[in-house]
Every structure is written in C-alpha cells, then in structure tokens.
Amino acid sequence: MRYALIGCGRIAVNHIKAAMDNHLEIVAVCDLSLEKARCLLDGHSLGTDKGITYYKDYKEMISEDPNIELIAIATPSGTHGEIALYCINKGINVIIEKPMAMDMADAEKIIRCSEEKGVAVCACHQNRFNEAVRETRRALASGRFGKLSHGSVHVRWNRDEDYYKQASWRGTWAEDGGCLMNQCIHGIDLLRWMMGDEVDTVYGVTRQQRHPYIETEDIGMAIVTFKNGTVATIEGTTNVYPKNLEETLYLFGEKGTVKIGGKSANDLDIWEFADETAKDQENKGLKEQTSNVYGNGHTSLYADMIDAVQNRRKPYVDAVAGCNALEIILAIYKSMKTGQPVNLPLRDFSSIDMKGIFDNV
After folding, report:
1. What is the CA radius of gyration of the chain?
2. Would you call 167 exposed, middle or buried from its count of C-beta atoms within 10 A (0-12, 13-18, 19+)?
3. Are 121 and 157 members of one domain?
4. Cα–Cα distance between 317 and 124 in angstroms, integer?
5. Are 93 and 223 found together in one domain?
6. 202 lies in which domain range?
7. Around 193, how many Cα atoms within 13 Å sit in the side-chain half-sphere?
8. In this predicted model, what pLDDT tens digit does every residue of 250-276 receive, in sequence order?
9. For the whole prediction, is pTM greater than 0.90?
10. Is residue 360 included in any domain, yes or no?
11. Between the CA of residue 200 and those of 104, 197, 211, 242, 319, what are the distances in Å?
12. For residue 359, is it within any domain?
C-alpha cells in the first residue's frame, strides 16, 4: 500500500515506525521544513535512495503522485481538518493525529465526506490498542462490571515554557488548544468510549494558572453526565511540578473496579471483579513497557487501518470516535465561556471561539 506522511514533527517518529512495522510502501513525506523531513527519514535509514520524495506542499505531493492510497496527517492541530478534507476529496484514506479537527463543523464534514467518497478515516487515538485498555473493554463488553456507577480521568502532566517555545503554534486557540485538547484528549476519548459514548450534558471550568505566555488553559475540570445514567469527572493539567505525574482512568461498577495507569494508559493498577477468574491474576499488575507517553499503539492502529482499507470496512477508531472526543472538549470550552452546562450534541463551536477568554487574567 502506497503511503505518505504529512508533518514531520514530534509525533512523526511513531508514524514512520508504524508504517515500517506494517511494511507500507513509503513513497513521500511532506513538511514545511525539508531539513526536518530529512532528519526524520535519516533516523530510520530511509531517504531518497529508497525512492522517497520530499515535499513542502501536500497539494503538490498529491498532484504528482495521485496513486497514494494512505496518508497520515501529523501537522499542527489547527490544520488537521483542512488537510484531511482535501485528501478525502481526492479519494485518499487518511489517519488523522489528534485532535481530528478544531471545530465541530470540520469534524462533521470529515465524517460526511468520507462516507460520500467511500474512503476510510482513522482518528489516531492509539491508546485504544493498549493491552490494559483492551482487557478493560473486554470486561465491559462481557458485563463483568455489572451496572456502571461512575468514572474519572486524570491527566496530571508538566509542560514548561521551553516546551511552548519549540513551536509558535503551541498554546494558541487557532492551532493547538490547551491542555484538554492537546494533552488530555486521549484520556477523554477512553473515558467517553468506556462510559457508553452517549453524553447528555457537560459542565466545565478552565483556568490559565501558570502559563501566561500562552493563550489557552493549563487546567481544565469537568463533570459529564451520560444518557445511561452514569456520571464522570475529567481533570487535565500541565501544571504539575516538577514533571509528569500520571495519566489514569478509573471505572467503577457494581461488580468491578478498574484503574488504568502508566505513562500512556498502559498499566492495570487496580483490577477487581466479583467473579474472579484465572485470567484476572494475570491482569493484576499488568504493565506494558513503553518508551514514551505516546505508547505502543500506533503500530496496531496502522495494522487495523490497513485491514479496514483492504476489506472496505470502518477502522476500529473511526472518524465518529475522533469527533466524539473533540465534542467533549469543545463542550467544556463552551461551558467555560457561557458559565452554563452544555447539552450534547454540540453544534457550531470552535476552539477559536475561546480567543481572548484569559486576556484579563
């Protein structure tokens, strides 16, 4: 399968590795900085001698190679929607890094256009492929929790000024969003997915406490009510001193309690069920080794996407999943702006609608 990558920044390493692991034919990479693209490929013993072409303009890349079958988009967040829609309208299957878009209109357009064009769209929420997450999902599907009561996600991380200085788009409403959109979105995706997806209301509060040089929030908290009667809380922050503390997801049911922890939701810190089985002993204390906060899920996500394209089915993490995670975050933002709970579904709201909210802080 002919593959190209648009965006060669921090997360691109995981995409190139996943493409190589799945034996994709890497034909092109695109970045505004050709030097960045070269460094990425050189680090994996790839380059022009392997038949890979470098581009600065993704439209030129697609025009010159209309036979590309799969494109991954790993550019600054604010460009995801525009690039994805261009690729989809050219009939190309896409993997879109989180967030899938920065406003609901683009997200819904991606879903609609992909269905019209008959192409597969995968939202890059790779933590769904972690073994700890898969085991929890199996337990939910088989009813081992009984009736769910509530859940919570906590992303307690650190990002300092040096991090934001690495790229001018970071910490902006137009291109990045705050800690909820950038750092917490994977946890929010897992929470909504595990709790039943169908959300009733979202009430959120955000603040900018320790990063006056950015536009966006560095802490966000929310209460989410679901149509199935469950309730959940969200806490996301980049204010933890002196380094990342934890990313955890709790699920509480009448017959089971699970805490997923680790660097990237890759450990089972608590695994307790009333109907204990032999497999439960293996799951207690399960730890999946990972070298960074991105985890190991990209390779599995790519494998699923390739199979989805070949068999003309929706990927495991499809465009609707990406839209759902985005919707929760934008609902928190809207709640902060209005001071009121927000009923879902959410329509016509964008991260840029928050511009200026912390100007007088």
Report:
1. 20
2. middle
3. no
4. 7
5. no
6. 128-291+324-354
7. 26
8. 999 999 999 999 888 999 999 999 999
9. yes
10. no
11. 17, 10, 32, 36, 20
12. no
